[in-house]
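Milestone M4 deliverable, item 7.
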Amino acid sequence: MANIILLAVCLLTGIGLKKTGRFPVATPAALNAFIIHISLPALAILHIHNMKLDTSLVLTASMAWLLFGCAWALFIIAGKVFKLDRETVGALILVAGLGNTSFVGLPMIEAYFGKEYLGIGIIADQLGSFMVLATLGILVATLYSSGNVSPRQMARKVLMFPPFQALILALLLKPVHFPEWSVTILEKLGNTLTSLALVSVGFQLQFTGIKAELKSLSLGLLYKLLLGPAIIYLLYASLPGAIGTVAQITIFEAAMAPMITAGIIAIDHDLKPQLVGMLVGIGIPLSFVTLHFWHMFLTSI
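Output delivered:
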């Protein structure tokens, strides 16, 4: 419950700081830079280094990749059908294609399924959502913000993305024992991510233009909260004996609200910041309702 309350407090804080004018207009840019260069790399090194890889959780790890791939294909089609501009399509792929599988996802798993299943959520987040963001996510952000870029430029963008570099470093350091003081430092730096990200999103959140973004907003939330997890369910249901507790929790993770960090990357690449703020700011509280019904459905099958 404390995590959920913190989400609301940080989002409202960002909105309040913007309205009072106490922070400069460039505040989101500074917060986003800290998140990308400090918070995310610290989390990557800490969690990937400690993660035990288990082949039995391949389906869980693959969920975010499937969800993102489907989002990419569907929003390209939706962009043509609804005549959406390039930046809007990029924002929808990136933000609606990835779920908040950690800060929202883990407390929700504990509340609905039990603390003993948190490991499934960590696999879905670290081997799924985070790795997609650090690779395909940054590719989408670059492609849709910069227009035509060469494969070499896109490869360089991925390789120079600080969280991706941290991910590689974490894998290389897996045989190395981390001293306690280094773990503490990484934890404290990583813990800044959610609060800073939500303050940044709240600072840029505007509801005055919601009518203009309503079509794109509806498409994004419809996919992220309903259609996307339904696709994952149908894919899993087609596998013999696949719908057990692990699969239920994986589908539940697929139904999480849009990923806060993906929103930060989208905003950093100037992909419709106002739309991104609405996807995150409206998507998180709305997901508390949709997740309840997803749990009811999953536990009844």
